[in-house]
Amino acid sequence: MIKKELRQKYKTLRKHLSLEQIDELSLSIANQVLELPIWEHSFYHLFLSIEEQREVSTDYILNILSGKDKNIVISKSDFKTGLMTHFLLTDNTRIKKNKYNIPEPVDGIAISNDKMDVIFIPLLGFDKAGNRVGYGKGFYDRFLANCKPETIKIGLSFFETEDTITDVYESDIKLDYCVTPETIYTF
Length: 187
What we know:
By secondary structure, the protein is of the alpha/beta class.
């Protein structure tokens, strides 16, 4: 399938999930994340979920990272440049939704891309080769292209894998893992 078709398919599937289902599936995903071989690192980039898009709730993963005393990094998106800036999440970090309902830090301690050890990535769908489909703006591909090569890239999905995404571009960055409520895919 092509990305445009996959975006529509997974947006529709998400719309049919109840808030209770989203919460249960998100908890299952967080429990799967605990099984990943990623816990010796320091800096973990986590997206804050867009509730209106019915994304995987990252609250449980946030609690795991906090409990393990990890440095948690969150982003702010600049829709004019297509780039994200990253900030350390602290007790003093103020979060505000932007006009696209993305929860973002108002300000804070800036963290550079080369500090990221592990990145949790929002997505709509993914395939057996580790290719992913996002919302199509390229924010994460630009971000990941500027991280160190050994940075671990983990997608989070309510749904299982597609066989193939047919319109993959050279600039698309593949996942190392994708975690669903039932499965950990390794690429």
